[in-house]
Design brief:
82 residues, 2 strands, alpha+beta, Nucleotidyltransferase, domain 5
């Protein structure tokens, strides 16, 4: 997940715009390195308050809309890190 975040930051087009990173409380997102990378890039971390998966339902629905209705993944040809 840290490599994926670094890759996303490398492709970020509007680096001066505010950004919020929402996630569940998975260990990978709570790690010191991950949080430090967010903070170092002035990205506000947002996490579910509890470990209840239903609490994250709205964010997951938004992700689904972006993928399906706005076709944000259309240009992804290879998910391998290079």
């Amino acid at each position: 997940s840290l490599s994926a975040l670094e890759m996303a930051l490398g492709h970020r087009r509007c680096g001066n715009q505010p950004l919020i990173h929402h996630s569940d409380r998975g260990l990978q997102y709570c790690s010191h390195d991950y949080q430090a990378l967010l903070e170092g890039n002035k990205i506000k971390a947002s996490m579910t308050e509890k470990y209840d998966p239903y609490e994250n339902a709205i964010a997951e629905r938004v992700n689904g809309i972006l993928k399906q209705e706005f076709d944000i993944a259309r240009d992804i040809k290879d998910l391998e890190l290079k």
